[in-house]
Write a structure and sequence with these properties.
This protein is mainly β. It has strands spanning 2-9, 12-14, 32-34, 39-41, 44-46, 59-62, 71-74, 77-78, 84-85, 88-91, 94-95, 100-101, 105-107, 117-119, 130-137. Strands 1, 5, 10, 13 and 15 form a five-stranded antiparallel sheet that branches. It has a four-stranded antiparallel sheet with strand order 6-7-2-14, with no helix packed on it. A hairpin with a 4-residue loop joins β11 (94-95) and β12 (100-101). The radius of gyration is 15 Å and the shape is globular.
Length: 142
């Protein structure tokens, strides 16, 4: 069984139709969970929960979407002490200490294409935007 972890860093990302063949949970970022002072896309984890005390949120809901009603907007921002908080979202679970994906979702087929839409707006200090897909193999029976 393969497990996918999708990690997006410092980008404005319209995840609609990404992996048309792979059923990414809430891949179009249409469903959002209200966390009180901020929202997160359902089935995704961001750093918003770790920055709630500073009021700096790097993950926001954007509308209208490339396809659909919304998209995931990630922006790296500085907190009150000047530390840059990366805009990142992980499908499933994120280790907020190591900034690495912990979970993912199971997919047992072989995808032919990786397609989707994303937009990156260059900032200062040689900023970079990217989408990272980690493919791992995990079998309970060897």
């Amino acid at each position: 069984m393969k497990r996918f972890s999708i990690l997006g860093i410092s980008l404005i990302c319209a995840m609609n139709n990404l992996f048309a063949q792979v059923p990414i949970p809430n891949g179009g970022c249409e469903n959002w969970i209200n966390m009180g002072t901020y929202q997160i896309p359902d089935s995704w984890e961001t750093l918003n929960g770790t920055t709630i005390s500073t009021g700096v949120y790097t993950c926001e809901r954007g509308t209208p979407g490339h396809t659909g009603s919304s998209y995931l907007k990630l922006t790296s921002k500085k907190n009150n002490s000047g530390t840059v908080i990366r805009g990142m979202a992980v499908c499933d679970t994120l280790n907020t200490t190591t900034l690495q994906p912990v979970g993912g979702f199971s997919f047992s087929q072989r995808p032919v294409n990786l397609t989707g839409s994303w937009q990156f707006m260059y900032g200062s200090n040689n900023s970079k935007g990217y989408i990272e897909v980690k493919l791992t193999r995990w079998d309970t029976i060897q």
